[in-house]
Design goal:
Strand content of chain A: 25-35%
Number of helices of chain A: 9
Helix content of chain A: 10-25%
Shape of chain A: globular
Number of strands of chain A: 12
Order of helices and strands of chain A: EEHHHHEEEEHEEHHHHEEEE
Oligomer: homotrimer
Largest interface: A-B, 43 and 51 residues
Distance between the termini of chain A: 60 Å
Structural class of chain A: alpha+beta
Chain lengths: 350, 350, 350
């Protein structure tokens, strides 16, 4: 019997199935240093223990997306090794801060299955939760991917399209942010004097800077997350693919855009929820990533008068500065430069 | 008098000579994060403090090969700066686990010298030991290299070919692995349900995945190990060499193959000994590394009923997937794709 | 009002203005591991806690240049985002050792302004100080850059060319080095038997080795320092520049040359002061860096009989080994290979 895992195919998944994923990971300051080196993130709360003390953290929490990528990476060998497309995310919530020293593992439940009309593939919906060893959840999200069948004649083990929210209700967010006194927050160290009240719904912000990505960079990042998807690493395999090249992990683009968004959103210090995300087009090494943001919504956070929540659309574009906010045309088709359309809730001091 | 070291030439080595190597190194979680980013290793015991507690470690030990590379790197300026070939390894044993916070230094003894018939070079055999500051040895190995003479007329200081074992006797292994209760070992977190009893002598495992290597990656790795061999870093020098390119440190290939071998050997959680290793052909940036393994032998570990030892041949190939296990032809010549032939003992829970 | 910072232009600076820079940073062993991986530095005091204990450090201090780059990086968004040239450094002094766990922030004072005759640009002189959260200074330096005007008709807010020393007086150096007993210093572990007394004024040392730089490497480094200068990262922007390529952060070259200088100056374990530095020519990815040093001066350090100070000129050259010490011709023009001319004080055990 083969010792090597070929991953799960569509007919291997069963509605309600629980998958405990391999390789728990103790997050360290080594990971946070690498995260800084990979993206150049400058949010003060993740960079400085001392700044984090002022926000009632015991030390600097790791970047929310670092925790997300580490949890996500564990799911790849079980969920998406045979995926042909990453269809979407929804209902992502950050439940506890993650600090260096915390150990994370991941568990997924199959919450939906839908065979495609071709009979060759199907959509698999999972709810993934990142946990500490005592079972305490630190983050959770739903994700759906299109997965190949091994045997086109196989029957799916259940059929259900789960009901997922269009956006996380703001009454559910903020759990991973300790209460703090906004007056103790130092705007100069944080990098901007613009706080919650200064942002308007509909406001668009060009983040100006661009970042060119190298093969070594995205490979280092994706391995750091112990994400094993072959398409990111194996040029021999990829040269015969329709792209002819290694694909960059979509999460790498999210982190690049988030780091670029510091210039304009420096006080959006915490990602509280991921409402949805779409990798509109692939990115390859040599491409330069730019980003812009739009404020979609503003909300109160339950029992918190120190922070408010901004719902932000973050768009990343490839090889095109974003001064004119490239997005969709009147027919709803994305500008060809757009590679990421990401919708999240961020907290900002009032 | 020159302040710059030109390294030792063949006639500088003396039988019995002790070389205390420079630059002790405190290993940190920064090193382990980089190791993960460089190779994508997923062995749970090195990734999670909590998993390591279950194996009676006080925290996650560093990857055995990270400790090996750090010790090896220190020897380069004294042993192999003028080497023209790395001839072999033998009798490598891991004696104590290495944890973040441990400081390692290296000492080598010249255990053999053999002038070549050309009179221009000679083989130098050393026994290198990696130690903590109190002198406690953490690993030891023999290595032999072919070293240039400065002066072709110089006489060697001794002649001896040391008697080195073909393989480490299993009665000598296991010292760096604390005793643990195999039942506490969580197969789901470890990544495989296949334990010691499931592997058969002669069984071959294709590790399936491939990893394309970039210049920046192997340079970062080799500098992390403070290995100064010019051939890895200096393109100006290398462009006039017979390869025309920078050579990738052979240890980088060993670590890549070991990380790939997780898929099929996830429970082979500890390298207990290195029986031998041969860098069959060089690797250059842009090459894609694949690997396969063969179980050569199974053995008990002295006084241990929790783990067994697998003797494994790990073969790495360049730009060629390993589904057909490329190795040697009937005349004993390696398949042109093979770049590494590595023989080691791994421990696995029973 | 724009939320995005476009940086300061010449007319925005005011004599005496204090700029508190964003993003405090807790330095960690993750940063030190990356620093090692980026440059291959081998100075024992920065590599080993145990070696550092012997020098009366509580643990290994971070490389002096790592602390410098982290402080420098913070100033970029406020000082040099619109700079067209980095004109010089002076009076750099290291005041306290920086250890993993220390948090650094940066404050700059505008100490000089001088409009250029063209009226389109002006020189801005700043004194930057890196501090811990309690305000204790760890390093300080003066720097001047040529900055664009937004409006050519704008008037400068003051005019002054500050009086900066040609070199730091040795009576002012040594504060970041604890007293230690030089006899406890282990030359074998440090990597050289050559101590202070062995170096002569006028002595030149070729550091022999070369290091080829990749795009991913300098980008990782520069992001690690949270330095946001676009010219290092944005190939889309740079392809239309006069170079057509990304420029490598000048500090990356300083660190490479310093790491190479270990071979010949292994006991120059601490940079005590930066007298001046000039980035003579740009470096691009693919270039190979070599270095040589000249001993310019020897000095006592106040109240210290354990160490002496060497004033060193460190020269880096591109794609040219330094056996013939490339520098300036008889007219004072630099050899075309020279990219860095750096003048510093190093401490060395007597």
């Amino acid at each position: 019997m083969s010792k090597t895992s070929a991953g799960h195919f569509f007919e291997d998944f069963e509605l309600g199935q629980i998958l405990r994923h391999a390789t728990p990971r103790t997050v360290t300051t080594g990971d946070t240093a690498l995260y800084t080196a990979l993206y150049g993130a400058r949010f003060a709360v993740n960079s400085s223990d001392d700044f984090a003390f002022g926000l009632n953290h015991p030390k600097a929490p790791v970047d929310d997306l670092l925790a997300f990528h580490i949890v996500f990476g564990k799911t790849v060998p079980d969920i998406s090794l045979n995926a042909v497309a990453n269809l979407g995310y929804a209902d992502g919530r950050f439940l506890k801060p993650v600090y260096p020293g915390d150990t994370l593992s991941a568990v997924s439940e199959v919450i939906g299955l839908k065979e495609n009309s071709s009979g060759k593939t199907g959509a698999v919906y999972v709810r993934t939760t990142g946990c500490k060893p005592d079972g305490e959840a630190v983050l959770t999200y739903a994700r759906w991917v299109m997965v190949n069948k091994r045997d086109p004649g196989a029957r799916p083990k259940g059929e259900k399209v789960p009901d997922l929210p269009d956006r996380v209700d703001p009454s559910l967010i903020g759990a991973a942010c300790p209460g703090f006194v906004a007056e103790r927050y130092d705007d100069a160290l944080a990098g901007s004097r613009h706080r919650f009240g200064d942002y308007q719904i509909g406001e668009k912000i060009d983040h100006v800077d661009g970042m060119t990505v190298e093969e070594a960079e995205h490979q280092l990042a994706t391995r750091l997350y112990q994400n094993t998807a072959k398409v990111h690493f194996d040029q021999m395999l990829q040269k015969d693919s329709r792209f002819g090249r290694r694909l960059i992990y979509g999460g790498h683009v999210i982190s690049l855009a988030r780091a670029l968004s510091f210039n304009g959103l420096a006080n959006a210090f915490h990602i509280a929820a991921i409402n949805g995300g779409r990798h509109v087009a692939p990115l390859f090494a040599g491409g330069t990533v730019y980003a812009w943001s739009e404020i979609l919504e503003k909300a109160d956070v339950p029992n918190r008068n120190d922070v408010g929540a901004l719902r932000i659309r973050m768009v990343a574009a490839k090889d095109k500065p974003c001064g004119d906010f490239p997005y969709k045309d009147e027919k709803g088709a994305y500008d060809p430069a757009v590679i990421l359309d990401f919708d999240y809730w961020a907290l900002m001091p009032r």
